[in-house]
Specification:
homodimer; about 675 residues; alpha/beta; 6-stranded parallel β-sheet; 23 helices; binds calcium ion
């Protein structure tokens, strides 16, 4: 190799050793082994703009093996992104710009948060789908406005995870020709050599998925790397995987061993590495000037490309003013005027409809105005009712379609949806039965952590689904969603609340929303409205004579109408009952205490009713009612009856609650000591 | 085909059509298409005993596409298992023996609960591991005590799920020669044809995993089916997949279409099917006598095999009395005398150790006495500290080993662990970081639903893991585990509580236990003991003068010692503070109210402290403290400080709680109305 090139590659290795040593924690092995791959991508192939890391025309780079992030931080620093040498020195320290795994909301130039293995590669499939669809939507003769590659680096860990199997099979099916996966085959895992557990033929598997495959036998051979990446770029009808055999911890005395995977090399070995590579062992965090020039000139080329792209965009807007404006609006993440105008509103007496049905209406009303809404179902379209009337399928040969056939791949679906979101200009949705969001939990949590306003349309949301039985009936699922920070869990009670939930979900650009929807029909409720749900919970209606409430029944979704019937029975028996509908507990949690006391006045006991588990309801309810076991197979109404979620039984339970407390003396659960919780600061920390 | 054979196969098809029609709900398509496969397995290959469905020598059959369970129920009925014709007529009705998906705890002859796609196949990998290991452990010259095949039937849905990719890759690595997968390739999914989303080359993928592959082009060709199954049985060093091309809903006017997948055929079509197959269209639920004889004679052969097996076992016990007794004990699911004697006990002043470390000691103490403990980690052995000193790895050529190298495959790991448990005679464990239990949620929930006493050893259980940051730090995870019915979530505070948690976990044969364990060191606490944790929560110790408590601090795991230091600070400031350690909230929930009032006397405010999310704590705490956002990357102590989980800050928070309530007047959260919750009855319903 050219000596300066070699020096540049070794600079990356030495910086990685320094960073992990300084942090006294982290993973030096993969950065040192993969330095040539990163060098080749950042200097020979990728287009990026350090001054505007969000430039829409950039190539995307995803480090799926996020533990190797020292490598990514080093590349961002060397190429002139806003990561200083001091930032590299603060690696893995609290509130630094260089956390222990890449966090998109902390570090400019990081596309997605990675570290949980497999997610990055599956996200990359989403990024490549997003690129292909956006190109099909906006590119015009002479205007290749959208035209970027998605590069992913991953290790064997990512390839063992099922989420990448799901996403990779779909990527092959969809023929995502601009997706290029570099597989760091270092033959080492945490437990030891990969042959302890991973002896499959990876490339043959990817061939079976329909990918183009190649390999680089010596991962330090830059020419071979270059050749194989170039060849992969030319294969435009298939995604590509390049297996690159590397030596983990290249340069260390322990290179090739598990030892260099997840711990600092130690001061002596770091000195040894520096001496071996011709660096001064007494100096740390050094970038030779000639090496810095190499990267600076690459970055300058990127800045030039960005300028040319903006010039193209300006001309595009002249030639195609409507499309140009729409493109800019989408990239800015802004909703257009009147976007919500089509959301349906219902009145009492309209035909009862399942909330999955009114969800389908709301989704289509929005999709008609919002081309950024793309998505699909994990092979449950006729059940989830997520088909888009506006559009056909996104398939290999119909990339302009907005409807995705994810197949029975819930985890891959959610991770791909995250990837589509983080491309920019999208508000994607995905769908399955609520119970099977648990298959996707690994990715769903990252929607929340990484601040992606995706929509999870989750139908068949309780024992009300009936015959499919307890393997399909969620119990603990809403407790999980509600306990996940930065995630809104909606369980609307009728069509108006469904429309309100969609409204809120679309307004929450940085918060994912889970919509839990019924299989069974629900009447339009007296007192519901799109407006009222904005506070997460509200007084729906009161039943009975007089001013003094005997009990408040708080409920969500398909049980609210049952609680209304319960209230009517109680009213006939002389009780005064208030129904509080609480479609989104997390938004309700954020309301001021005074508002909560309006809903739940002091002294009045609260019973909650939800046809799922009761965990989490003790916050507001003196007596939560629901299931404390798994459900049961049978017709929906029979299962409700079995578990006592009927007006007759709920009346009996409510009477127990009323009898338990001397009238007006139930303790307030709303008035609680206010502790000092730590929230995010303006730097994303 | 022989006419009687054809009639027998068609009887299965007609019964399936009848069942779904009668239920007015269900999936007729797969049973009708797969009837020849089931016929061939149950009459030509499988050994089973209808009079003792749990006979250890039986071949295992797993219906991974559980929605096709009408087929399995029909086979159980025809072969003389205790499922009557009336049971078939009650398909999908509440409290019937024939629920909408197979439930192992309801229906004799069902090995595992399936329906959530992919689980059954991954379970089957566990069953095959269990067989191979048990055979290696107990079989002796002349005594093939353990010698059965595991057959799985699955559809394309199962093969799209990542969990099967993970499990199948491992199965190939392990060379599980007695695992035979029949893939019902009917080219139909719920959304339509499989080519909407699933165009990979499945057999090539399985070849890449190291499986033996074959195919049956016409799934009605019994001779070809027989030949391919026979060939698969003879391949003893690799698992086998046989792709069987079938016609979904074979016999229906809509055969081959999505329409027959998940809805009744309709009365007219059912008549048409019966006429086509030579049955009386006016009769339903009919088994011709000659057909019944076919199955009865097969079942008799199974009964004979069972008798011979028991005779062999009797001789085995004479020849190998110790092994024989141990084998019988394991199969009976009994723990031996003195099994817990080796569990370590710690005293105040012993060196502080991470609970993952004391977990490793407890695990090894138990494993030394309990050969039924097998398990491993998802490639985090050095972090989870789950290595077994007693034994080497279970690998292809060392099947006697008890330690499993699962690879980075959390979902597959959990599903395989479930499979090992349901083989009988095992108490398996598996391990990863607590946060990544979410990758495995789909299988973890089934451990609980299907009543499998598996151990989830989950380390790095909070922000205390430090530098790896928020992608690795669980927040919502314990809320999920606690909200899952029939699952015990342990978060022990020191070594004694760890030993107590293991004790409880082993005693809970039908309840899985999650052990959440710290990365960081924890001191041995004054007041802790193995005995006390049996109630799930207990008064650890009080600090300060006088009798009147100012506050109770309830906490778990690594925060208990911090709360003790907080209590000491408060005591110095003149407060009287009680610390309640609550290592298992679910077990605590089950204690009588009187006991709870001993821990949490009326009038005293409770603050809870846990370095995770606060959801779920409102049940017992007036003021739950913890995180309301995701965590942060940094050194563990720095992250604790950032989030205020330090004695100094907790003292400030506790003072707010004390100040909020007039002394002695905090409302009791323990005394609540008791509602009538539905529990399981003796029939498993
Ligand atoms: Ca939430
Ligand atoms: Ca639980």
């Amino acid at each position: 190799e050219d000596p300066l090139t070699l020096k540049a590659v070794n600079t990356i290795r030495v910086l990685a050793a320094d960073m992990v040593q300084e942090a006294n924690s982290g993973h030096p092995g993969a950065p040192m082994g993969c330095a040539p791959i990163a060098f080749e991508l950042y200097t020979q192939f990728m287009s990026y703009s350090p001054s505007d890391p969000q430039w829409p025309g950039r190539d995307r780079f995803i480090l799926s093996n996020g533990h190797a992030c020292a490598l990514q931080y080093i590349m961002l620093h060397l190429t002139g992104h806003s990561l200083s040498m001091d930032d590299l020195k603060s690696f893995r320290k609290v509130d630094s710009m260089t956390p222990g795994h890449p966090e998109n909301f902390v570090t400019p130039g990081i596309e997605v948060s990675t570290g949980p293995l497999g997610q990055g590669l599956a996200n990359a499939v989403g990024l490549a789908i997003a690129e292909k669809h956006m190109a099909a939507t906006y590119n015009k003769e002479g205007f290749d406005l959208v035209d970027n590659y998605t590069y992913v680096l991953c290790g064997d860990g990512c390839l063992q995870e099922g989420v990448t199997s799901e996403a990779s099979s779909l990527a092959g099916h969809l023929g995502l020709g601009k997706l290029i996966l570099l597989y760091d085959d270092n033959q080492i895992t945490i437990d030891g050599e990969t042959d302890l557990s991973f002896t499959e033929d990876v490339l043959k598997r990817y061939e079976a998925y329909g990918w183009h495959t190649s390999s680089v036998a010596d991962g330090t051979n830059l020419k071979d790397l270059n050749k194989k990446i170039e060849a992969a770029r030319k294969v435009t009808n298939k995604p590509s995987i390049i297996k690159v055999t590397t030596v983990i911890g290249f340069g260390s005395v322990n290179q090739g061993k598990e030892k260099v995977h997840g711990a600092p090399l130690g001061a002596d070995d770091v000195r040894q590495v520096k001496e071996k590579f011709g660096f001064d062992p007494d100096q740390s965090f050094v970038v030779p000037d000639d090496v810095r020039d190499v990267f600076t000139s690459c970055a300058e080329a990127g800045e030039q490309a960005r300028k040319e792209w903006h010039a193209m965009l300006a001309k595009y807007k002249e030639a195609h003013p409507d499309l140009g404006a729409e493109f800019e609006r989408r990239i800015a993440g802004k909703l257009p005027e009147g976007w919500a105008d089509g959301l349906p509103v219902y009145k009492v007496g309209d035909a009862a409809k399942a909330s999955r049905f009114t969800s389908g209406l709301a989704l289509n009303a929005l999709a008609a105005k919002l081309p950024e809404m793309v998505g699909g179902s994990a092979d449950l379209t006729p059940s989830n009712l997520t088909a888009l009337k506006e559009t056909g399928d996104f398939q290999k040969d119909t990339p302009e379609g907005r409807y995705l056939r994810f197949g029975v791949r819930e985890h891959g679906m959610a991770a791909i949806t995250n990837g589509i979101f983080c491309y920019g200009g999208y508000r994607p949705f995905c769908a399955t039965f609520l119970n099977f969001i648990s298959y996707a939990s690994g990715a769903v949590r990252l929607s929340a952590l990484s601040r992606m306003g995706v929509l999870y349309i989750m139908t068949h949301d309780s024992i009300g689904l009936g015959e499919d039985g307890p393997t399909h009936q969620p119990i603990e699922t809403l407790a999980l969603c509600r306990a996940t920070p930065n995630m809104h869990t909606w369980r609307p009670a009728d069509g108006n609340e469904v429309s309100g939930a969609y409204y809120s979900a679309m307004e929450s650009y940085n918060t994912p929303s889970v919509l839990a929807l019924s299989r069974q029909n629900l009447p339009v409720l007296e007192g519901s409205s799109m407006e009222k749900v904005k506070k997460g919970g509200y007084v729906l209606k009161e039943y009975g004579e007089g001013d003094d409430l005997d009990i408040i029944i708080a409920s969500t979704g398909s049980e609210v109408c049952i609680c209304v019937d319960t209230a009517k029975l109680l009213a006939e028996a002389g009780k005064k009952v208030r129904i509080v509908s609480m479609p989104c507990l997390e938004i309700y949690d954020e309301q001021p205490e005074a508002y909560k006391l309006e809903c739940f006045p002091e002294g009045v006991p609260v019973m909650s009713v939800e046809a799922l588990g009761i965990e989490g309801w003790h916050k507001y309810a003196h007596a939560p009612f629901g299931l404390i076991r798994f459900g049961s197979s049978g017709k929906g109404p029979d299962v409700y009856k079995k578990f006592g979620i009927t007006p007759d039984n709920l009346k009996v339970q409510a009477e127990k609650v009323i009898a338990f407390y001397p009238k007006g003396q139930a303790p307030s659960l709303v008035k609680r000591p206010q502790l000092d919780f730590v929230r995010y600061n303006e730097h994303g920390h």
